[in-house]
Amino acid sequence: MRLASPWTPHLMPIAAPPSERLVAALAHDILEGKLESGDRLPPHRDLADTLAIGVGTVTKAFAMLERRGLVRSVKGRGTFVALVQTRKGVQIDLSRNAPPAVMTERLLARTLAAVARNIDSGMFNDYPPIAGHEEHRRLVARWFAGVGMEADPRHLVLTSGAHHAVALALNACLGPHGTLLTEAHTYPGIITLARHHALPLVGVAMDEQGMVPDALKHALGRAAAGPRALYVTPTMQNPTTATMGLARREAIVALCRAHDVWIIEDDVYSQSAVRDLPPLAMLAPERTFYANSLSKTLNPTLRIGGLVPPPSMYARVIDALHTSAIMVSPLSCAFMAQWLMDGTADAVRQAIRAESVSRVNLARQLLSGLAPQDTAGYHVWLPMPTLEAQRIATAAQAIGVTVTPPTSTATDNAGADSGLRLCLGTPSMEQLGAALAAIERLRRQAS
Predict the structure, then answer these.
(1) Strands 206-207 and 210-211, how do they pair?
(2) pLDDT tens digit string along 209-248?
(3) pLDDT of residue 414
(4) CB atoms within 10 A of CB 266
(5) Residue pLDDT, tens place only, 316-361
(6) Which residues of 98-133 are buried (b: 16+ CB within 10 A; e: fewer)?
(7) Rounded to whole angstroms, how far apart are CA atoms 235 and 246?
(8) Cβ distance 264 to 231 under 8 Å?
(9) How far is the C-alpha of 290 from the C-alpha of 279, rounded, in Å?
(10) Which DSSP letter does residue 412 get?
């Protein structure tokens, strides 16, 4: 006689197909320890009847769970919980900060067909102007206008993503000398760039709105003589998700003007314009390098970004371009042009935003103590002491969940306060639910 299953059937309350809701519910209970290795799961038909879903839906969900190593099926006997520790390799990656995938095979095929019909062979037979073809710069400028940044296409240069744009700005305003200031917790890429160029990096204290003006004033007073630049993400800061209010933006700009500091503004997480929150580049165009990218707002493989430098620094940015990538992929530009002209880009952006809202809401359901955030994004921030963050990151890796190492976002590795950045965009919803539940369980065990 077969033993009854100890599992109480339910579906995870998330906006997803029934199969993914069932996977998320079972994965959550397995990772939470509510089910143990060897526990029997209900038969397919019984589970389908109980949950009012199709037998095929149950079969699909069990297959996904088995591929992840959470369950195992035994012919003629049923499906059983497997040991989580037996999974090999990284199963769920919460360390890559990319938008949710919304590009389908049909959309890709349609875009390729449209590009093929409208292809301009001249753009593939010669090098483009160093700053990019004028029509492509006009398109990117129009895209920037959609997030509140009004840019003259003649003063905009195309780049291979926002990271490249930030590197060009850093090269133009500091070169091999000077001091770079940024938030105490910041984008790992800027930390790497500063180290690569052997630039002193000064972390500035933060609060719920990001960089604190008084802390910036104090840091500027202590900074070494010579050129200085401030790298800052005013909207949906990476990693803390903080967004500066208007008064905070104006205070930061005023300090940079008073101390003659260049501003490098990373605006990749602005998904739409907010009337009361203009980019810093609109408040201080004479000293702000504005960087943005389609990679973060549309698709990570669309490596097209743009940099709008202060007019006085345009020539230096062009010089810096000559020392790095001398062109953006013509094929990427063709994709960008097609998407921006036929409305696909706006549709994709809206779909990504809707998906981001669902994922952030799921994180709020499963995680306690999340940092508040005003806009939907692709990551959340769990503030906690540095040692606790490091222990949880290590423990998560051991059970197949990769998170951003806390040390990679901290400008001061000796600081006592830190946190975990959890990137929500790349896993499936069922993977995300399981991973977030595992993180919460590890936090409770650590407390």
Answers:
(1) antiparallel
(2) 999 999 999 999 887 778 999 999 999 999 999 999 999 9
(3) 53
(4) 29
(5) 999 999 888 778 888 888 888 888 888 888 888 888 888 999 999 9
(6) bbbebbeeeeeeebeebeeeeeeeebeeeebeebbb
(7) 11
(8) yes
(9) 8
(10) -
